[in-house]
Amino acid sequence: VGHVGLEGQAGGEVGDGGRPEVGGLAVAASHAAGLTLCAVAPRPPWGCAVVPVTEHVEWTEAAHEALAGRVAAATGEAPGTAGARVLAAAECLRSAGLAPDTPLTVLPAQRDAWTVLAAGDGPRIATLVTSLRDAAGPVVVAVLTEGRS
């Protein structure tokens, strides 16, 4: 998460926890594949991520690898695509100030192309695989928001 050049511009400032703020709204940002994705919210938790899809993911967390297997089983996607969804979810957790190894579950699909991961009754992370006009391959965009009970 960067300050996306907001400090001192257009009323931007740095709020608690070092997050940029504009007009009392907190901003999270992620950069990859020539894209900057921003999430703006009045209060945490929230976060966002952009992750390029690759054929193979080098896992550093066994739990993430297992979750990617469950995502692939639920979506029918290739391991690299499911892995990019999990990496994006971990980045969302990190950008929201939560542990990136927070246990997540795959929720039943409710919308085409979207896969939602849940941290218990807490945050939800919506992930979408999409193509960008000038990008070499697909990317996963993800947004974390408060959970619903």
Ends distance: 28 Å
What's the SSE pattern?
Answer: EEEEEHHEEEE
The portion of residues forming beta strands comes to 25-35%
Secondary structure tally, helices: 2
Tell me the radius of gyration. Answer: 15 Å
The major beta sheet can be summarized as: 5 strands, antiparallel
Shape type: globular
**Helix proportion of residues, in percent?**
10-25%
Structural class: alpha+beta
Count of β-strands: 9
Rounded mean pLDDT is: 83
Layout of helices and strands:
Layout: E1 12-14, E2 20-22, E3 25-32, E4 35-41, E5 47-52, H1 62-75, H2 79-95, E6 105-106, E7 114-118, E8 124-130, E9 139-145
Antiparallel strand pairs: 1-2, 2-3, 3-4, 5-9, 6-7, 7-8, 8-9
Helix pairs in contact: 1-2
Q: Can you walk through the features of this model?
A:
The chain is α+β, with helices and mostly antiparallel strands and 149 residues long. The chain has helices spanning 62-75, 79-95; strands spanning 12-14, 20-22, 25-32, 35-41, 47-52, 105-106, 114-118, 124-130, 139-145. A 5-stranded antiparallel beta sheet has the order 5-9-8-7-6. Helix 1 packs across helix 2 (79-95). The two termini are 28 Å apart. Residues 1-10 have low confidence and may be disordered.
Keywords:
about 150 residues; five-stranded antiparallel beta sheet; four-stranded antiparallel beta sheet; about 20% helix
